[in-house]
Amino acid sequence: MTTLTDLQGTYTIDPAHSRLGFVARHAMITKVRGSIDEFTGTARTGAGLQDAAVELTAQMASIDTRNADRDAHLRSADFFDAEKFSTLTFRSTEVVAADDETLRVTGDLTIKDVTKPVTIDFEFGGRAQDPFGNERIGFEGSTTIDRKDFGLTFNAALETGGVLVGEKIRLEFEISAVKDA
């Protein structure tokens, strides 16, 4: 059985088998789900987690909520201003094993040139060799941020009270990574 401390080396995220998603409250009554479809990332670790490092870069122009008008609005200056701030980045500052199956990754999340610390708990899905001889690892995790902390302040009041877009955004990570040769 593989444990978190057994993972050594550099792993590159496989975007074809991974997902970077988000969930936002809409009109105070439902949720909108979306993803950022173009991203790259690596995770490195040595003999222990004390030297581990995680990096992720996502292209904001690839945001997808399955609605072209909403996607264009999210890419606009009202929200992410993807033309001016093309990437979202995350760089770890600390990686620890919270328990035998959970990796707690703390780091700096940058959206629209605003950097704030966040902590993400990742559940270890395991390690396997794929049919092509690659060593793969899997993790799933999430965290909640306040979008206003990152300068995402657009909103509209509703006649019935409340606002169009909730402040709390859940970021979701489903990661499959391949060990570098």
From TrEMBL:
It comes from Mobilicoccus pelagius NBRC 104925. PANTHER family: PROTEIN YCEI (PTHR34406:SF1). Belongs to the UPF0312 family. SUPFAM superfamilies: YceI-like. Residues 10-178 form the Lipid/polyisoprenoid-binding YceI-like domain. Signal peptide: none annotated. InterPro entries: Lipid/polyisoprenoid-bd_YceI, TTHA0802/YceI-like_sf. This is Lipid/polyisoprenoid-binding YceI-like domain-containing protein. It holds the Pfam family YceI. It comes from the Bacteria.
